[in-house]
Structure formats: C-alpha cells, structure tokens
Amino acid sequence: MFMRLSAFFVLLVILFSSAPAVAQVQSADAEGHQWWQRAVFYEIYPRSFADSNNDGIGDLIGITSKMSYLHELGVDAIWITPCYPSPQVDFGYDVADYENIDPMYGNLTDFDHMVAEGKKHHVRIIMDFVPNHTSDQHAWFQDSKSSRTAPHRDWYIWRDGKAPGQPPNNWISIFGGSAWKLDPATDQYYYHFFYAQQPDLNWRNPAVERVMLDTTRWWYRRGVSGFRLDAVDTLFEDPGLNDNPVLPGTNKQGDPNLQNKYNTNFPEVHTELQKLRRVADESNAVLIGETWTSNVAELDRYYGQGGNELQMPMDFMFTMVNKLSPPDFRRQVAAVESAHGWPVFVISNHDIVRSYNRYGDGKNNDAIAKLMGAFYLTLRGTPIMYYGEEIGMENNDPTRKEDVKDPIGRTGWPQEKGRDGERTPMQWNASPNAGFSKKAPWLPVPTSSQTHNVASESKDPNSVLNLYKRVLALRHTNQALLEGAYTPLHEDDANLMSYLRSYKGKAVLVVLNMSTSPQKTTFDLSPQGFGRSALKTAISSGASATGNEVTLEPFGLLIAEVSQ
Ligand code: GLC
Ligand code: CA
User: Is 78:115 a contact under the CB 8 Å cutoff?
Assistant: First the structure.
C-alpha cells in the first residue's frame, strides 16, 4: 500500500510539476527530423513589437495579443530577446535577475499567459540566455565588488593592474575602450567584453556553471522550448591574460584593431555547450547559438561531436553577403550544406542593418525583399526571421547624435550610429506610430510605415507580406521543402540563383533573378529524375513558366513543383 501510494505521489509530481514543464514533446518525423527542423522561427525585440499599455515600450501582453498574427503568418516559434529585469544599458542584454521579467515588460503571470496562448496558437517560446555577463546591478556583482573576500568575488574576473593606472592587459571591449574597469573600492579591475555595465562571469568557477545550468532548467519548467545563447564564443578567457595581437588600423570606436586570440573561442566553450545541451535534452528543447563564425569549420564545431552541442548554430554568412550575388550565395549554401548539422539561415537581426536595406537597391526594394524571402525560406534548413522583415520594414537610423539610444551609437558617432535603426517599432497599420502604441514610441517609426504595415499589406495580394505568407504556407505542407535535398542548378549563371529541393519523386524548383535585366532559361531536370514533367508554378512574382522554360522580370522569382 505504501509503495502504491508513493508511486501515486511520484505520478502526481510528474504530472503537475514536470509534465507541463516538458516542452510539447513530439516525436521525430519519418526522416528523423525534430520539431525545430520543421519549424519557422521569428525573432521578437520585445521593446518594439506591440505595446499593450501605451507607455511607448512593447511588452509581453502585446506579444500575446499577436499570437494569431504569428500563427497565420506561418511562425512556429518566437525567440524573444532578453526581457528579464535589467537597467537596459544594452536594452536587456545586461541582466539583473535571470529568473524574472522586467516590470516594463510585465511579470511572470503575463509570461505564463503568453506561453499558454502560444501553445493554443502552436507558437513556442524561445528565451534569450545571456551566459557571458550579467548587469553590474545584478546582486551577484554587487556582492562581488563589495570586498576582495566577498562570497561572489570569484564569480567575476578581477585582477590587479599591470602597474598603477594600467589595466591588466591590452584587451579592448567590443563596445569601445579598455575591457577592464578599475573599481576603486577594492583597487582591482574587472573584465567586461561588452559595456562596463556588463561584467563577464567567471565560468571557471563551478558555482557559476551550476547556477546558470539551473536557470535554464527553471525556464524549461515554465514551458520554454529552448534558448538562443548570446555571445557564446566569449565565455572563456586566457587565465594567463596574455595581450592580444595588435592588427593594423583602428575600429569604428577609434580603438586599435586586435585579434581576439586570448579572450574568445576557447575550447572550454564546447564543454559548457555540451552541459547546457544535456539539460535542454531533458525537455526536448532546442539550443540556438549566436555563433559568429567566419568559416564552415568553425560553424561545424558548434554542432559538437555527434551533434552533442547546439542543434542550431546560426549561420550568419548570408548577413555578410550584402549584395545579390548568385555565385556568393551558392558558395555559402554549399558551405553550410557540407557541415555536419542542420543548416540555420538568418538574413537580419537586431544587431545588423535590416535585409530590406542591405540587399535593396533603393528602387526595387519590395521586389528584392520578396526575392530574399523566397530564397532563404526555401532552402534546406531552419530559417530565423526578424520581426518586420515580412512587411519590408526598413532601417530608420537616427540622424542626430542626441536622438541615439544605443550607447555605441553615441560613443562612435558619426561612424557608428548604433543599432536603433533596425530596432524600431513593428508597423501594424497606417495610424500614428504605426499602430504600435498610442504614445510616442521609444524609437520613431519611418514614414514608409504608411505603406509598409500589416494592415495595408494584408489587403494587397502583391505585397511583401503576402509573398512571405504564401512561401511559408508552402513550406509547411510541401514535403520536398520540408525534407528534400538541395541541388544547385545552372551553377555558372551569374544572374540567376536556381536550385531543386527533391524528395521521394517530388521536387520544388526555385528560380530567382538577382539581376536588373529580364532573364529566360530552360531547365533539363532529367539528371535529377524529373525530365518528363512540366513545371507547375506554385508561387511567382514577376515570372512565369511554360513547359520547362522560365521567364523572369528583373528580380522576379518562381517556385514551381515538379514530379516524376
Ligand atoms: C549579442 C547581442 C547584442 C548584445 C551583445 C551583448 O551580440 O545580440 O545585442 O549587445 O550580445 O550581450
Ligand atoms: Ca508597454
């Protein structure tokens, strides 16, 4: 009887504590693909998505109110950039408490409600995890700086200066100036790779590792389906504090260029990623990495041995091809295809100029925005969209230094204008402030919000939004797009990017005119086994197909189905 009762209690505990915790468990599909391989991800900058209480800053209730929009768009998971309590020096990337919500965004009840509403609308929640540093206002750092013998002293990286008035070495903060700040109270320097208000945690201290792993567990239990891991390459530094090699020239902040040899990319990072992964696996959760890699070998390392690290290291290579270049794109896709993990494609985020501006030529920006959507959303792999990309939102950069909110835009002005331009409010309709808020938002909306907004574009069948919706709908139902292999076609064509996605006797052909001139071409798909079938247009914009011939206007796109 005792045994039975205790078994019953164990069952109760499982049902009521960990079961809701376990992120919607789903088995793999016939190809062994997990939920995150079939999902479309969408990054939300919470300050700028939807403002429910009209204080000019977006919030969780705002996000929750847009779940049906997200679902109808074709989004399966949203990654929310940090919404934890924070002094907002780096707009949330300076976390003062990892297990709470900043009052400006709501509270944990709002969070739970958002998760529940997300579940109803089949939208999972991915949180942003900032493991490298905390806010200087975090209780750990406050204790750490209080004395050389404080319990949390060794949770951060404290060192004596090289000589009076001299930091321990030549390391530079990526946001400008020395990476070391002297704290006069204890007469030692602490290390910060980012702003001085973002002291680096000491991951060589097992107590730090323990508490950080537990934090991820805590959120999984609240229903989070995964994390985007911030700045993972910066977790460890050389304990010997060697000076970094100096390179020629200076950066936008006026600091000498250094090779970050002794403060990034330590092998220990991978050990920690494996541990974070083991915790994630307890909840069928996904780990996405902010992995700024310069080649595929580096990217490959983040997948880990046998895939035991990040399932989704972000491939930022596209964000570095800032022109419409089929040869460059083919090279990038081929590189990712050769990696030992599932490709992850990104064309925009909150740290880089929006894709609308980067690829746009100033005249055909809408056509180019559609082209880019049709491109990266039909590749083999998981795309991570950036809010507003689907309506052709453009950068709205500050024109005066006094308007800049992002600190690097003030210290680096005018060379570096900061990241405000790509973080402006989501454009919902043509009313003042683009329907984001009744109050002046924290960043201004551009005048193009009059035409580029959800309400107007929903009514226009030729809008960027409707193109995105059609592509995402096809992607969710078409097996070749979900599972199929990628085969580049016409590989020496400088104007057209063409490829086939094929799966079990069915295929999708994608043809994208990346040039300013009309194009005509024919496809012989017999080597791929599709020689007998005519092209059946699924989605097109400025393009058409007859038999196996495709005609495209400048920046036209065609997505056609073929079968054996
Ligand atoms: C990442 C974030 C960026 C932030 C930095 C420091 O690069 O994407 O916005 O400023 O980390 O946390
Ligand atoms: Ca608000």
Answer: no
pTM of the model: 0.94
pLDDT at 26: 53
Please name the amino acid found at residue 46: P
Measured distance CA(533)–CA(113) in Å, rounded: 50
pLDDT band at 21 (very low <50, low <70, confident <90, very high): very low
Contact in structure between 260 and 193 (CB atoms under 8 Å): no
Q: What are the two backbone dihedrals, phi and then psi, of residue 449, each rounded to the nearest 5 degrees?
A: -65, -15
Question: Confidence band (pLDDT; 50, 70, 90) for 130?
Answer: very high
Q: Are 200 and 234 spatial neighbours (Cβ–Cβ below 8 Å)?
A: yes
User: 143 catalytic, yes or no?
Assistant: no
Q: What is the mean pLDDT of the chain?
A: 94
Rounded distance between C-alpha atoms, residue 31 and residue 109, angstroms:
38
DSSP letter (8 states) at residue 532: T
Closest ligand 1 atom to 419 CA? 9
Rounded Cα–Cα distance for residues 59 and 110 (Å): 9
Residues 6+ apart with CB under 8 A from 449: 427, 430, 434
Neighbours of 398 (CB within 10 A): 19
Q: Tokens 């999902």 identify what position?
A: 39
Percent share of the chain, pLDDT over 70: 95
Q: Which of 503, 507, 535, 501 is nearest to 521 (CA)?
A: 535
For ligand 1, atom 7: residue with the closest CA: 231
Asked if 282 is an active-site residue, the reply is yes
User: Please, which pLDDT band fits residue 533 given cuts at 50, 70 and 90?
Assistant: confident
pLDDT surpasses 50 at 14: no
Q: DSSP label at 67?
A: H
CB atoms within 10 A of CB 338: 11
Q: Which of 44, 80, 86, 93 to mutate to test the pocket of ligand 1 (most atoms within 8 A of CB)?
A: 93
Residue 490 C-alpha to ligand 2 middle, in angstroms? 50
Contacts of 370 (CB under 8 A, 6+ apart): 464, 467, 468, 541, 555, 557
Spatial distance between the Cα atoms of 420 and 104, rounded to a whole number of angstroms: 19
- Cβ of residue 235 lying under 6 Å from some atom of ligand 1: no
**Ligand with the closest atom to the CA of 49:** 2
Q: Which helix (H) or strand (E) holds 249?
A: strand 246-250
Ligand 2 mean position, distance from CA 110 (Å):
12
Mean pLDDT score, 251-267: 96
Residue 25 confidence (pLDDT): 46
DSSP three-state, residue 558: strand
The ligand that comes nearest to the alpha carbon of residue 425 is 2
Would you call 15 exposed, middle or buried from its count of C-beta atoms within 10 A (0-12, 13-18, 19+)? exposed
Per-residue pLDDT band at 140 (split at 50, 70, 90): very high
- Rg of the Cα atoms in the chain: 25
